[in-house]
UniProtKB/TrEMBL annotation:
Name assigned to this protein: 3-hydroxyacyl-CoA dehydrogenase NAD-binding domain-containing protein
UniProt keywords, alphabetically: Fatty acid metabolism, Isomerase, Lipid degradation, Lipid metabolism, Lyase, Multifunctional enzyme, NAD, Oxidoreductase, Peroxisome
Subunit (UniProt): Monomer.
Keyword Lyase: yes
Annotated catalysed reactions: a (3S)-3-hydroxyacyl-CoA + NAD(+) = a 3-oxoacyl-CoA + NADH + H(+)
UniProt domain 3-hydroxyacyl-CoA dehydrogenase C-terminal: residue ranges: 482-564, 600-661
Localization per Swiss-Prot or TrEMBL: Peroxisome
Family from the record: Belongs to the enoyl-CoA hydratase/isomerase family.
């Protein structure tokens, strides 16, 4: 026995069982336990073959991410890989749960791999801004070939056992629940049949084959340029796989190149940010005043009010995990249209082969259509997703309070309104919570859970856990205008709208923001969403309002900030330029000419950081990393910057304070304090 390992012998088979919760990551404790097991069985002449298996919920989930950037401590992962691959006795990896990153790479130095059908294997390092640095870029192409390895490693998605078997990533499937027995009998068969010791590193045919198509790597980079933009890891992954081909059959030379490229990524700001983000995403569910003693309420059925795009998307989240939904609308027509959209979404997935036609019908059967609110009487949770008007919401909540059984949670999907005012329309404000989804609600992973003044801890806990169970990342916010994501990003919109009156064009602004790493700039986004939709009723006149008056609604009609050809290709618009110039004149703002990209980025994004600091000051957000998660998942803020707060820490808070002062925007007290103390918002 070691701290994390136990070792036993059954007949001729030695079994190394590692159990290092929560996910058997390959930190020092785990590595020592593996080392002890293999040394012990190497010395035990009664053992002829070895099974390596994990206890707990999963096979090794990869290297211990918290060890990156620290000096290595022996035995390091590579020592362990060598120990296993050079074992004189065949080793069978027995996989359940998820064999990821270094975990799957470790299975690749075993001589055989067997997995239960529910297991998944994969190399997700790319999402940490890394490449598989324990031989994954050298061994995987030797098994699946170069084209498949490129997709698997740059995509980073885990692969289900059955598919992995087809690809050769594992050698056999065990019966679910019988992994240990099946792995032992697999090992016995190897011995009985005298099967050879299979070393992946000796298999060179697929790499030699690839030497013939020299252009494959450049073409791959070109084809994926858009998806890889701004990320450092995908390019390095491609180069590492290329090295496997170039150096084959010299395995060690390829490994040396993989290590060089890995170390470059490990030290890169992109990977630092992405590793920070990995933990940030897992931190959001931790609410300081809600401990393990706080329970949750059962949610076995859900009601959704409003079958528009939002309500339909929200509904799909619950159907997908088997929770039935009563979908309520005011008219049969609206209801039919909404249900039709949900059906079409599922049918499109079926067309793409992502689900069967039978599954579509199963999911649709979970919807109970309803006119009016009466049918919501027995559901455990109601989510209201009607349009943003306080009087309408209050009326609905007051009615729901009278209709729904005691204990039903009443949630609003409001994006801006005061949840406490809505809650006050009911006799159960402790059961009122915000559940703010982002559009399209069946796709976007952010869920802001809004905690009202009187919302009970149990209700918060329920909403957070439920959010996680439907695949969202729940971020907790207190009540304020726009909550977290919309409030910080509104600060960017305000600056963008002002800036185009001062000289830079919408194209200049969009380009600077695109080059920073966003998928599109604010004006491209406005045109896409529709200028009639983004219209503001808090100002008398605006550029977008003036464009709407000219019937320029954006991409959907006559252009907006841009002109569009029949293929929706954008070009600068002379009409929009005139509207902007007229508006600037009306406001008495002088055109001072173009600005640098750097100045534009500072103008638009420093105020986002400032707003984030205010959210912390006001206690709206629990922690800076929650703000980063909200920006990344709600607004596609480029993840390799770590989000606005991590980015501000990276460039230096004093620089942000100076920038804000120069723009005449008062910096938040917390921001100034942290800058003065040389402090940070986030912990890398
Ligand atoms: N290192 C350190 N901690 C890890 C970890 C890892 N590789 N993987 C998970 N954890 C921690 C999480 O931070 C979390 O901690 P917390 O409870 O204190 O918040 C805890 O383990 C449980 O994780 P999840 O909440 O994510 O648990 P799930 O059950 O939802 O998911 C999982 C399990 C699918 C294994 C998921 O944790 C995961 O995807 N882990 C990361 C896998 C990965 O990226 N591996 C590659 C690592 S890099 C590498 O191997 C480099 C190599 O090539 C050299």
């Amino acid at each position: 026995m070691s701290e994390a390992g136990s070792y036993c012998v059954e007949g001729e088979i030695g079994i190394v069982t590692i159990d290092n919760p929560p996910v058997n990551s390959l930190g020092l404790r785990t590595r020592r336990a593996i080392q002890e097991g293999f040394n012990r069985f190497a010395a035990d002449s009664s053992v002829k073959a070895i099974v390596l298996i994990c206890g707990g919920r999963t096979f090794f989930a990869g290297a211990d991410i918290s060890e990156f950037g620290q000096p290595p401590v022996a035995p390091d992962l590579h020592d362990i890989l060598r120990l296993i691959e050079n074992s004189a006795k065949p080793v069978v990896a027995a996989i359940h749960g998820t064999a990821l990153g270094g975990g799957y790479e470790l299975s690749l130095v075993c001589h055989y791999r067997i997995a239960v059908p529910s297991a998944m294997v994969g190399l997700p390092e790319v999402s940490l801004g890394l490449l598989p640095g324990a031989g994954g870029t050298q061994r995987l192409p030797r098994i699946v070939g170069v084209p498949a390895a490129l997709d698997i490693i740059t995509g980073g998605k885990p692969i289900k056992a059955k598919k992995a078997l087809e690809l050769g990533m594992i050698d056999s499937l065990a019966d679910e629940g019988k992994l240990r027995e099946d792995a032992i009998s697999f090992a016995r068969h190897i011995l009985a049949d005298g099967k050879p010791m299979m070393r992946v590193s000796d298999r060179n045919e697929k790499l030699i084959e690839a030497k013939a198509s020299a252009d494959i790597f450049e073409e791959y980079l070109k084809r994926n340029a858009r998806a890889f933009r701004g990320f450092k890891a995908p390019g390095h992954i491609v180069r590492a796989i290329q090295a496997a081909v170039d150096t084959a059959p010299d395995f060690d030379a390829g490994m040396a190149r993989e290590m060089e490229l890995f170390l470059e990524l490990e030290a890169s700001p992109e990977s630092l940010a992405q590793r920070y983000y990995f933990f940030a995403e897992r931190e959001t569910v931790k609410v300081p005043d809600i401990g393990k003693d706080v329970g949750t309420l059962p949610v076995k059925s859900v009601g959704v009010i409003g079958a528009g795009t939002m309500g339909g998307g929200i509904t799909m989240n619950f159907l997908n995990v088997g929770i039935p939904v009563v979908l309520a609308e005011m008219s049969q027509e609206a209801l039919d249209r909404g249900i039709g959209i949900v059906r079409r979404n599922y049918e499109n997935s079926a067309k793409k082969g992502r689900m069967t036609a039978e599954r579509v019908e199963q999911l649709m059967a979970l919807i109970t259509p309803a006119i009016g609110l009466e049918a919501l009487r027995e559901v455990d949770l109601v989510i209201e997703a009607v349009f943003e008007q306080m009087s309408v919401k209050k009326e609905i909540f007051s009615k729901l309070d009278g209709i729904c059984k005691p204990g039903t949670i009443l949630a609003s999907n409001t994006s801006f309104l005061d949840l406490d005012e809505i809650a006050a329309a009911t006799g159960r404000p402790d059961h009122v919570v915000g559940m703010h989804f982002f559009s399209p609600a069946n796709v976007m992973r952010l869920l802001e859970v809004v905690r009202g003044e009187k919302t009970s801890k149990e209700v918060i806990n329920t909403a957070m856990k439920l959010g996680k169970s439907i695949g969202k990342v729940p971020v907790l916010s207190r009540v304020c205008w726009g909550f977290i994501a919309n409030r910080i990003m509104a600060a960017r919109a305000v600056q963008a709208n002002e800036l185009i009156l001062e000289g830079p064009t919408p194209q200049d602004v969009d380009k600077a923001i695109y080059d920073y790493g966003f998928a599109m700039g604010p004006f491209q986004m406005n045109d896409l969403v529709g200028l009639d939709v983004i219209g503001r009723d808090d100002v008398e006149r605006s550029v977008s309002g003036d464009l709407v008056k000219l019937d320029r609604l954006g991409q959907k009609k006559n252009g907006g900030y841009y002109d569009y050809d029949e293929n929706r290709k954008a070009s600068p618009s002379p009409v929009a330029a005139q509207v902007i110039a007229d508006f600037a004149q009306y406001k008495g703002i002088e055109n001072k000419g173009p600005q640098s990209d750097e100045a534009i980025v500072a103008r638009l994004l420093y105020p986002v950081v400032n707003e984030g600091a205010k959210l912390l000051e006001e206690g709206i957000a629990i922690r800076a990393s929650d703000i980063d998660v909200a920006a990344i998942l709600g607004y596609n803020w480029p993840v390799y910057t770590g989000g606005p707060m991590f980015w501000a820490d990276t460039i230096g808070l004093q620089k942000v304070v100076d920038g804000l002062n120069a723009l005449g925007i008062p910096p938040a007290t917390l921001l100034v304090e942290k800058a003065q103390n040389g402090d940070r918002f986030t912990t890398p």
